[in-house]
Design a protein that fits this description.
2 copies of one chain form a homodimer.
Chain A: H1 3-13, H2 18-27, H3 37-49, E1 53-57, H4 77-89, E2 99-103, H5 105-116, H6 124-132, H7 139-165, H8 171-201
Antiparallel strand pairs in A: 1-2
The structure holds a DNA duplex.
Chain lengths: 221, 221
DNA sequence: ATGGAGTATATCGATCCGATATAGCGGCGC
DNA sequence: GCGCCGCTATATCGGATCGATATACTCCAT
């Protein structure tokens, strides 16, 4: 449920250690907000135990070069350069432990499973996340995701309408229920636009027309 | 966090036992959905331990009348009548254990605290719940609640806009972020309408004008 | 140098959810 | 009549997440 977020981030952005993952999730995509350490570290441990990610302990020892950060050369980029430079100027005992995580093939397959995610769907965060990573999904699965979500929202709207139908509600409760229905309709409209764009990008006549998905950006602003 | 919902329900609807509380929360107000037993029963136990509610074991014994459902006369209404009628037609050993909960003065005071709830505010469910029970709040506190929420949403919108500003996002991620910003603006507009209604209902000139809050129902249709 | 701010990992307790266990009861069909 | 299904009803368990907190190292300003 945030395994998906972690795997997606590792897939798209490369290396990353716990603290960075949290930062990117809080800043990068405005979706997940929060994601406290109390959930992040257990999740990373879980993923590592499941073989979906590999952790390389990147606390460089006192000896200068002697790479104990061995496989896969240039992952950490300019950031690691700065790091080792600082270590050179200041005294040894390279900074803190710091585990850098890398996604495995096992993890990539798990990521694909979580993305389609037929098993248990519902909540809005989960959907937003899946859609944000929809690029890694084949076109039909993308469409299925959108339509499944649309169905869920429609059902929810019917429930809320039923709840709002009873007139035992006072002004404030009614305002809340009405607004909820309104927001749901708004979301459904957005999904409809996305679905239409997705469909027209896959029209049989325009089989090999790249760049056709350029106008997806919902109804924002 | 759902203590508020339970207390509010007991305050407005009277008696109620666990199963009924869940039903009313799922159907009655479309807000909270879910509220599984796994959270409800612990919450009830918690509230009972805190002295906010009193539980009367209402498994009526074999003897017909002999009220062990003693204080506060006509709480359970027609529902209890049906219940006892059925017991009369079928054999004794009145059905299942069934604890009926009643709110105490202690609970009412706790309810008031949770309603204003300066301590930790944020999440949307909590706000929706508070607003739905806003009737039990004095007018200034009501206004404060709305404005606090408005401020939070404005801050969140700024964050989301910042996140959307970076152009490293692909079409789908952008669609998600844009829609999130859009939904936030929609919510803020709704709050603005509520705030205005609330303000105009409290204009100094129209001090004793009841019924002035009749047009609150947001933009819902 | 002292101490605050930022980086970094980890754990704790509380809350909540979904699934599941248990059990009384009414009605339906055959 | 009798078995089974489904509704009412309470309770517990494991898993996920959050917020707070502990710990430690580094950098920079004073």
């Amino acid at each position: 449920m945030l395994d998906l977020a972690i795997l997606g981030l590792l897939e798209e952005r490369g290396d990353l250690h716990g603290y960075e993952i949290r930062k990117q999730l809080r800043e990068g995509l405005g979706l997940l907000a929060n994601v406290s350490f109390g959930s992040l570290y257990p999740a990373l441990a879980r993923l590592e135990a499941a073989g979906a990610v590999e952790a390389t302990e990147a606390l460089e020892p006192v000896e200068p070069p002697a790479a104990p950060v061995p496989p896969t050369g240039s992952l950490s980029g300019e950031w690691a350069v700065l790091r080792s430079r600082r270590r050179a100027t200041r005294r040894g005992r390279g900074r803190r432990s710091r585990k850098v995580y890398r996604i495995t093939d096992r993890g990539r397959s798990l990521f694909a499973d979580l993305l389609t995610g037929q098993g248990a769907a519902d909540d809005p965060r989960s959907f937003g996340l899946r859609l944000a990573f929809a690029r890694h999904l084949p076109a039909p699965a993308r469409l299925a995701l959108l339509e499944r979500r649309r169905l869920q929202l429609t059902e929810r709207l019917a429930e809320v309408r039923t709840a709002g139908g009873q007139d035992a509600l006072d002004v404030y409760a009614r305002a809340v229920v009405d607004h909820m229905a309104d927001a749901l309709q708004h979301d459904i409209g957005w999904l409809d636009r996305l679905i239409e764009t997705e469909r027209s990008a896959a029209t049989p006549g325009a089989a090999l027309a790249p760049g056709a998905t350029a106008a997806v950006g919902g109804g924002a602003r």
